[in-house]
Design goal:
It is a single chain. By secondary structure, the protein is mainly α. 72% of the residues lie in helices and 0% in strands.
């Protein structure tokens, strides 16, 4: 039985909408990571601060690429997004006891999975020390 007025979803998602949603997920993941670091105590917050400081401009760069959405930015945003994911994931390395909310892990995993398909050559070292 068909629903009146229902349309068949497109099999081809709009790449810019996916990019916009990915950037939103990254921003939410940044906030969730920051909240988890604060909740884990002062030493965790201090350890996380360099990661958060480095991730924020990476997320902004990805957002700017999505906003521009020209040929170059369409090629660059997945690498920028994947770089932001790699940086945020370093919080877990720096603070092994850090527990990120499931939604943060899911957001990072989803963005990384999508971005990896378009940017397989991101360097593993995101450079946070």
């Amino acid at each position: 039985m068909a629903c009146p007025g229902a349309t068949t979803p497109s099999n081809s998602p709009n790449p810019q909408e996916i990019a916009q949603a990915s950037v939103k997920l990254l921003a939410d993941a940044w906030k969730g990571t920051a909240d988890a670091c604060v909740a884990a105590g002062e030493s965790a917050r201090k350890a996380c601060q360099p990661v958060l400081d480095k991730a924020k401009p990476a997320i902004i760069a990805a957002a700017n690429a999505v906003d521009a959405w020209d040929a170059v930015s369409q090629q660059n945003w997945p690498c920028l997004a994947r770089s932001a994911v790699n940086i945020l994931q370093q919080a877990m390395t720096l603070v092994p006891s850090l527990v990120l909310p499931d939604i943060v892990n899911s957001a990072l995993g989803l963005v990384n999975s999508y971005a990896t398909g378009y940017c397989p050559s991101v360097a593993a070292d995101a450079g946070v020390q």
